[in-house]
Amino acid sequence: MYQLLVSGGVVGLFLQVVPIACLVGVIYAIYRCIRIKKQKISVKWSTEILRWLFVCYLTGLINLTLVPRNFWSNIWALIYIGYSGSQIELFNGSFNFTPVIFKIIAGELSFGSWVKTMFTGNLLMFVPMGVFLPLISAKINAKSILKIAIMAPVVIEIIQPIMGRSFDVDDLILNFIGINAGYLIAVGIKNLSCKRR
């Protein structure tokens, strides 16, 4: 299990942040239950569950994109072997302003398994954001999701080099597509739900 957690693979990175996402989810659930009980708020439980899932997802997303790359690897190393692992380095991120597709066309890079994994991961990572937002808030429409799809990836990419990660134009493009794809899925879900009523 330890080897999987610190492997740096997609599954390992996901498993690293599951505990903190669950912990924040529990804290949020307790907070909401207390608030609902005290203020006697009328709630729609399906929406509350979606909000809870969104909080868990957002916690995981923040930890996968804005926490220093080796932070959770070090935490798990400390838990399993009593050694904190490599030093966390800040302000040493890299920058990529050339989309991968141009590098592939130029013959500088092949569309191998690593590129496919990064493309798929960066796309799918933001699909839930596009799905959750319109389902938990009636205020979210195509115009607002477009703004979010631009701003959220830009803010994340600007912060990443500070946290020892990388600014990558491919991430901006794929995250943007992911959020909008998620929004289209949510619209489809809403339309199906309306037809069944």
UniProtKB/TrEMBL annotation:
Residues 54-187 form the VanZ-like domain. Keywords: Membrane, Transmembrane, Transmembrane helix. InterPro entries: Teicoplanin_resist-assoc (IPR053150), VanZ-like (IPR006976). The chain crosses the membrane at residues 6-31, 52-72, 118-136, 148-167, 173-192. Pfam families: VanZ. The keyword Membrane applies. It comes from the Bacteria. This is VanZ family protein.
